[in-house]
Amino acid sequence: MTVSTTALPQMHHVEFDAGLISRLSQSGPRYTSYPTADRFSESFSYRDYLHAIAHARARGGRHPLSLYLHIPFCDTVCYYCGCNKIVTKKREKVVTYLGYLKREIEMQGKLFVGLNHVEQLHFGGGTPTYLSDEQMVDLMNHIRRWFQLTDDDKGEYSIEVDPRSVSAERIHRLRKQGFNRISLGVQDVDPEVQRAVNRIQPEDMTLEVIRAAREAKFRSISIDLIYGLPKQNLQTMAQTLSKVIAANPDRIAVYHYAHLPHLFKPQRRIHEADLPSSDAKLDMLALCIKRLNEAGYVYIGMDHFAKPDDELAVAQRQGRLHRNFQGYSTVVTG
Ligand code: SF4
Questions:
Q1: Domain ranges, ordered by start, for the chain
Q2: Ligand 1 atom nearest residue 74's Cα
């Protein structure tokens, strides 16, 4: 993929170069976050961490933080999944996990006293909405006790939502609990693809969550898609894109499915014969880029697209776009 700013001044227009992609085709780390987890090193010790905090304190000034909270629980397993997760129906496991998480929040909060202003907060998973409402309220209160969240709704406070796990009322409650951005896992709307990956998610369910998120005035609604899944082809991808574009989300992420069954056990349940070929995957990616461009989405970078008036696209035009461990952002955080 090459990126140029010549055809559309102020906007990144994507030119798809399948030949270049084929020539550079080789395995690399999964860039869902950066630096990727397998690049973390023991050579950065706890002492180094304390030293970095002391250094920030000594420098003075403002050092807003970015917090990521991982809620690893899921009700059922999606076969393509490569996330760090615990698939269980035993809800009591959450209680133990939350106990440890709250202790960790308190420990970190104590280290960052006076430097604890949080401009970016992200709940990822797993399925963050696996937590009950009461557990979510309690956790958010605990975060507010040890860290300073903005009261003016200006921070980027986001949550990943599995549309299969929430009602419209729950979406409204998440907004009241302080979240102002929402990201929905969709992956593909085709029923046969959904069956092949064990993620049955009727379209209406997704649309209902989007409707509720708009009503609740979430500042940004994002949809995640995946190309390269079993039973996918150009036709299913075209239908998925039409439906997702019609739903009009502010952001769309299009991830590549990496089939690594030796690393991720659930992927062993995917029939390899159902996987699209490399060429078919490239065609699907080209189609995604073409359709999203035509629909007016701006290419942000990596797998991300946003509407021209979305904060990410505005920040990109103004040269204020940043990338940190949690992905693209309009704020600089520590
Ligand atoms: S894709 Fe999401 S919902 Fe599905 S198993 Fe993985 S973490 Fe859970």
A1: 64-329
A2: 8
CB 124 near ligand 1, within 6 Å: no
Q: Which residues contact 21 (CB under 8 A, 6 or more apart)?
A: 1, 282, 285
Ligand 1 atom showing the smallest separation from residue 126 Cα: 7
| pLDDT tens, position by position, 34-77 | 677 777 888 999 999 999 999 999 988 778 999 999 999 999 99
Q: Which helix (H) or strand (E) holds 187?
A: strand 181-187
pTM value is: 0.90
Between the CA of 94 and the centroid of ligand 1 the distance, in Å, is: 16
139 Cα to the center of ligand 1, angstroms:
21
The answer to whether the beta carbons of residues 260 and 267 sit under 8 Å apart is yes
Q: Which CATH architecture best describes the domain 64-329?
A: Alpha-Beta Horseshoe (3.80)
Q: Choose one of 32, 76, 83 to mutate for the ligand 1 pocket test, by most ligand atoms within 8 angstroms of C-beta.
A: 83
118 phi and psi angles, rounded to 5 deg:
-105, 115
Task: For residue 311, give the 3-state DSSP assignment.
Answer: helix
